[in-house]
Amino acid sequence: MRAMICRAWGAPSELRLEEIDAPQPAADQIRIRILASCVNYADTIMIKGHYQTRPDFPFAPGLEACGEVTECGSAVTRFKPGDRVMAMLGYGGFAEQTVASEIDCYNVPDSMSDEIAASFLIGYVSSHVAIRWQAKLESGETLLVLGASGGVGLTAVEIGKALGATVIAGASSAEKLDVARQHGADELINYKADSLKERVATLTGGKGANVCYDPVGGELFDQALSSLAWGGRILVIGFVGGIPQIPANRLLVKNRSAMGSSLRYYRELRPDLLRASVEELTGWWRDGKLKPLVTQTFPLEQVPAAMTELLERRAIGRIVITVA
Ligand SMILES: NC(=O)c1ccc[n+]([C@@H]2O[C@H](COP(=O)([O-])OP(=O)(O)OC[C@H]3O[C@@H](n4cnc5c(N)ncnc54)[C@H](OP(=O)(O)O)[C@@H]3O)[C@@H](O)[C@H]2O)c1
Hints:
By secondary structure, the chain is of the alpha/beta class. Helix content is about 30%, strand content about 25%.
């Protein structure tokens, strides 16, 4: 099969399309003929060697995919060959075939396209577990979302609305903010042009946001922390802008909390909550409350160009690799 292979830690331009043997499923795994896979920012971190998992070389990156089941391990009970599934992977999505643990796979609703299914799980589930189970956002609260037009950011906007919150979207351009508005954001802040802290104070009548969803970090984190209301919670999701330090005194003064949220630990330790998240999200999708956004597709040989879109901050919504 063809796969986009990483043989040394580095940039997307160092990946190579190669012919390799197809992987064989273990007893609890299924083999999938990939139809489409999604590009996540984490793929760019993984090939640099800076991600939580560092696979042995050679490996194909790619954290999620949609495809057709071609073979089931002996212990698999929920799937059969021919089923169309969406899967969370450790890696291996930028290839014509992959294997995935049964527990990480879900049937795709008939009316959901391959491109949407390939990009549904990580974006929506990461945001859902963070907002719903970690921060416990309540209806009527205010949710501030940074990077609000990005892969995970846009899902956070929609989930905030589905849970009955007022959503303030923050992004770096008018074009990106317009996308967040189309996906339900009530208020918009261009944090490249304006002070995040001052705008949140103005928009909330001085009270601040109850929850902040932050996949950006870096210098924005400090302003986001200052934008929290009494009892506010900031969700530490990612660090595309750098890893911030948290001054403990700023948490104490208003009884604020900083909460890490990693999808990986829900996969490993709370599969029950993760499954509940997927059920709620697919229900919302069927009800039309979620409108997954795929703005660009690339063929398998152009995975490096697709990753560069994210690294150069041009991506909006999801970028998908069409494999079959
Ligand atoms: N904790 C979890 O479970 C979990 C799950 C999935 C992803 N993540 C993390 O979330 C982060 C975002 O992932 P993603 O796939 O959503 O990425 P993405 O689609 O590229 O979105 C990232 C957003 O961050 C903003 N940004 C600010 N500074 C940036 C910079 N220097 N370079 C690129 N973007 C920058 C951009 O919006 P503006 O231009 O509007 O600022 C962009 O829309 C990553 O760190 C990823 O590892 C965490």
